[in-house]
């Protein structure tokens, strides 16, 4: 019996053991890979101030092609689908439409899709372990190096590295957004989401009134350090009985983003006006007979300085 026990102990110690990731950047990269490469379903709540939404996010992968569904569980039926590099919006209260895109951004934390190796203007601070949705999580705080962007606290599943909870704070340490998983299901094998989405009839991507990555006759002369232009576009949108041309430029530092819109018509009544929609700041600035609108997860003072730096090229 003694020899048998010694044999069992020896066998136990030679079994391969999964190495625990401890460095913050390794945990963050593992989280990014898990979100992109695993089949999983998350039931979660998303809170902005007193506004609380119940959501379900289902993600699956087949031959390096991503499929996803984001479903609102409250009020009127609304869902967002990812298939074949197109994002489709379906609901009872609007006409369904599709846009080009490789990931769902709505109602999900920005950290879901961040490239943490390129975040040169943040520090990553480990805060130990905690428990969320009956799972053990590693807690990491993402701290900006200046006051032009916001901070995050993340709870990452110790076993599968999926995000269990996140909190977004402004530079006055006010909580802007909380994401919290109630239940998760992980299945790395066959997933029924893929055959379901493959057979669905979805609205085609409408590119008739949109020019993407087109050169524009204006530019933003001041950007917070680390922010870079990502894309630009020109669109014609219906307004009342007519149409209006809207141009835009998207900027990002790899985590925080903002978009600058230039409308062909300006209203002096909206000059230098602020508004907040959930975690997003909106600032409008009238420039001649046009209107500049900045929308993003950035401080109000930063949005104002960006808008007022817009100039037209000679």
From TrEMBL:
Residues 25-191 form the MucB/RseB N-terminal domain. Residues 1-19 form the signal peptide. It is found in: Periplasm. Coiled coil: none annotated. Its main location: periplasm. InterPro entries: MucB/RseB_C, MucB/RseB_C_sf, MucB/RseB_N, MucB_RseB. Residues 216-310 form the MucB/RseB C-terminal domain. Keywords: Periplasm, Signal. Pfam families: MucB_RseB, MucB_RseB_C. One of its GO terms (cellular component) is outer membrane-bounded periplasmic space. One of its GO terms (molecular function) is antisigma factor binding. One of its GO terms (biological process) is regulation of polysaccharide biosynthetic process. Belongs to the RseB family. This is Transcriptional regulator.
């Amino acid at each position: 019996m003694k020899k048998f026990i010694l044999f069992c102990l020896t066998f136990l110690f030679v079994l391969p053991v999964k190495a625990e990731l401890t460095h913050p950047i390794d945990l963050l990269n593992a989280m990014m890979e898990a979100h992109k490469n695993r089949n999983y379903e998350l039931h979660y709540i998303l809170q902005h101030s007193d506004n609380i939404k119940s959501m379900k996010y289902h993600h699956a992968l087949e031959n390096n092609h991503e499929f996803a569904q984001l479903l609102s569980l409250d009020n009127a039926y609304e869902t967002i689908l990812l298939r074949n590099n197109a994002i489709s919006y379906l609901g009872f209260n609007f006409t369904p439409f599709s846009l080009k895109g490789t990931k769902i951004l709505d109602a999900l934390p920005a950290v879901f899709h961040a490239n943490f190796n390129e975040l040169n203007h943040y520090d990553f601070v480990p805060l130990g372990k905690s428990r969320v949705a009956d799972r053990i999580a590693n807690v990491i705080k993402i701290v900006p190096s200046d006051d032009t962007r916001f901070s995050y606290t993340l709870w990452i599943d110790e076993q599968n590295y999926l995000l269990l909870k996140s909190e977004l704070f402004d530079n006055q340490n006010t909580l802007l957004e909380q994401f919290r998983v109630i239940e998760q299901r992980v299945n790395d094998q066959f997933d029924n989401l893929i055959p379901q989405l493959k057979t669905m009839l979805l609205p085609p991507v409408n590119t008739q009134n949109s020019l993407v990555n087109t050169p524009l006759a204006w530019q933003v002369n001041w950007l917070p350090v680390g922010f870079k232009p990502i894309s630009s576009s020109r669109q014609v949108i219906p307004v009342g009985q007519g149409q209006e041309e809207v141009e835009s430029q998207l900027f990002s530092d790899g985590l925080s983003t903002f978009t600058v819109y230039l409308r062909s018509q300006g209203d002096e009544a909206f000059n230098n006006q602020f508004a907040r929609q959930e975690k997003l700041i909106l600032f409008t600035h009238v420039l001649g007979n046009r209107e500049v609108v900045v929308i993003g997860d950035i401080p109000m003072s930063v949005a104002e300085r960006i808008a007022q730096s817009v100039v037209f090229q000679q």
